[in-house]
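In response to reviewer comment 3 from the previous cycle, which asked for concrete evidence that the modeling workflow produces usable outputs, we include below a single protein chain processed end to end. The sequence was submitted unchanged, and the resulting structure tokens are shown without manual editing.
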Amino acid sequence: MQFLSVLAMAAPQGDPSQAQGMQGMLTGMVLPTAVIFVIFYFLLIRPQSKKAKEHRELISNLKKGDKVITSGGIYGLVESVGDKTITLKVAENTKVKFGKSFIADVRATAEED
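The workflow returned the following structure tokens.
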């Protein structure tokens, strides 16, 4: 609102209707921009941050014995969990180390392999 008053003071002082027209024009530009931002927030930004938060929680709750799927589609069993990496057992005597961020999902133990 201070911006509006600054513009009103900067307008020529001779005609009061011209100052009101300038404020109306500014409101006409700011209001649609604010509405678009609110729409983007609720349709794009908020759901994306919610999904990222859920993924961080999923990664922080990983433990040995969990069945997981990587973002590359590899199914594995968690052998060990480090600070930034995780070791998966993908076959007998085959262990692969991944970055924690590449874990896409934790599978239910009842799911078929």
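The beta strands are 67-70, 75-81, 85-91, 94-99, 103-107. We consider this sufficient to address the reviewer's concern, and the full set will be provided in the supplementary archive.
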